[in-house]
Design brief:
single chain; 191 residues; Lipocalin; 10-stranded antiparallel β-sheet; 2 helices; 17% helix
């Protein structure tokens, strides 16, 4: 059997081999598993009258990738605003963390575009957010930077407490606005 004429040129064969390698490598990269590394920082910021800002922070975050969905889970049971009484009210009365201990963002893996080494990829994406036992669609902005075999991920989203069945906090006549800004920062390794 004669070899097709176009395949007889070694450069064309090399070119086909390179294309095949790229086609094989793309699905492998797309299905690579991401996981969060230590050092995460999450801030929930609520605003009130007269410029009042209440910021609750935690570093308890996990990010898991099953190949279909990336799931970012933030544990709320140790969320801290810097004032013990306010923390107890927030966790026990409003977030009800004994019953609903986490906030979860899920994103289809196929919608994430990971940057090449040394580059940054940013986009607005659709996902779902679960807080206080309620799941809602949400748009969020993320930026991921690739360096040294890992990704630095920064994300921002806004949620309305009422959408998740959370009573808007009020203390001594001061009520915060129902919108909460969430800032998430973590490093993720590609496995």
């Amino acid at each position: 059997m004669a070899m097709p004429r176009s395949w007889s040129n070694p450069l064309r064969s090399l070119s086909r081999a390179a294309c095949l390698a790229v086609l094989v490598a793309v699905p492998l990269d797309a299905s690579a598993s991401l996981s969060a590394q230590p050092g995460a920082q999450v801030a929930f910021t609520a605003s009130g009258p007269g410029g009042l800002k209440i910021v609750g922070t935690t570093s308890e975050l996990t990010a898991l990738d099953d190949g279909q969905t990336v799931t970012v889970t933030v544990t709320l049971t140790h969320l801290s605003t810097g004032i013990d009484l306010r923390d107890r009210h927030m966790r026990d009365k409003y977030l009800e963390t004994p019953t609903y201990p986490t906030a979860v963002l899920t994103v289809p893996r196929a919608s994430l575009a990971l940057p090449t080494p040394g580059a940054t990829q940013a986009a607005d994406l659709q996902g779902t957010v679960t807080i206080h036992g309620q799941t809602r669609p949400s748009t969020f902005h993320y930026a991921a930077t690739s360096a040294n075999g890992a990704y630095r991920v920064d994300a921002k989203l806004r949620v309305n407490m009422r959408d998740f069945g959370i009573v808007v906090p009020s203390y001594m006549g001061v009520t915060v606005k129902p919108d909460v800004d969430i800032d998430v920062h973590f490093a993720a390794a590609d496995h």
